[in-house]
Amino acid sequence: MYEIGHYVNGVHQPGASGRVADIMNPATGEVQGKVALASTAEVDDAIAKAAAAQPAWAAMNPQRRGRVMMAMVHLLNRDMDKLAEALSREHGKTLPDAKGDVQRGLEVIEYCIGAAEMLKGEYTDAAGPGIDMYSMRQSLGVTAAIAPFNFPAMIPLWQVGPSLACGNAVIMKPSERDPSVPMMLAELFLEAGLPEGILQVVNGDKEAVDALLDNEDIQAVGFVGSTPIARYIYSRATANDKRAQCFGGAKNHMIVMPDADMDQAADALVGAGFGAAGERCMAISVAVPVGDETADRLIEKLVPRIEKLRVAPYTGGNDVDYGPVVTAAAKENILRLINSGVDQGADLVVDNRDFKLQGYEDGYFVGPHLFDKVTTDMDIYKTEIFGPVLSTVRAQSYEEAIGMAMDHEYGNGVAIFTRDGDTARDFASRINVGMVGINVPIPVPLAYHTFGGWKKSAFGDLNQHGPDAFKFFTRTKTVTSRWPSGIREGGEFHFKAID
Known about the structure:
The chain contains 16 helices and 25 strands. The protein is of the alpha/beta class. The strands form seven sheets. A seven-stranded mixed beta sheet has the order 15-16-17-14-13-19-20, with helices on both faces. α10 links the parallel β13 (252-256) and β14 (284-289). α2 (62-78) runs antiparallel to α4.
């Protein structure tokens, strides 16, 4: 049993509120640790200390801040195995998945090494007679990062890295379900050369979140999680005159055209639908084959692949495909939705509702499920299941298929598998979804592009990482200067009129 408190001014501190939450082992269903839940006073204290430290960090030139990012990349590579093991222990995902979690965060820190380039302003010489204009990008002050449970390394690094590189201080509020890795990241930033107080970690629940949203020193808030919470945080933050960048739920479609390579499409669906137990905001949860013949061929390819998936704890070896979901409540909700799909008339082609893992009967394991003949009015189609469940919705035409993705309330990611370039080009141009894959099932952009969905998947004007992050975490100041010409006579300076 271990205990996690907070990390303030480079020091681990026990919680003072008297409130704690259990940290569960998803593989066994047992309590493995306790995490402190911060009070409003504790959050306000961390913010005040960050605000005091931030001006000196902002005054440091961006190239030197970039060197801290460079050192952080080295440390993340050095401690990759340690971070992955801690991540898997609390979240449940396999070690390769956990390393991928760290790696995708690391890549954003790599991008932040170039902060000096991203923070350059603009200059216009002679905008008018003797007049020059220039702009500069300046830090906001203190920002907040509220991270989800499903990517406890990647998302905190996406949120924290660009803000720090811009000269801000950051208050990080990790998920209370898997808080160890964010605490380790804060330690590594300090080792990389980040001054004390510039990155504070406060663990907590809604009380801590509301304290961040209400504190006047917090200038901007980043959040990733469910759509109802994203909407709540966005509304409360903006009502308090803060910038907000809030990312919510998803229901990602993958359209399979008749000309697609069916083996490639099936492999993509299995990896994108069941990897990390489906607990990804970019997971493919809806397959849309065009035409009944295409659907029949796709189902024929999918069934044996899904039946071969190995579900086990992360300690089960390198051939484990995915592990448990994060909580008992998550497992219960997934099984409830699966039952609703059966009750509403969908064909449950692969049924693992009775799945039990010997020796881990109390763990939160959910076997893989495949539905066919799902319709758009069913709960399993409308709802983000966030579990190892793939629904197949048959479309009779390309227009019907693309219409499903366009009409859905979520617009995070979407993909099409086809050999036809004209179809792919039309799809990319017309689809109203933020991230698009063409023969790529999970189209997560690399660090130098931006990540973000449309519709009810995102609230705010700017996306995560890439150039958008440097815009979000800075303010633009524009200076207009005039230096009139003058003549020095007898030791005195006289202005000369400008025609």
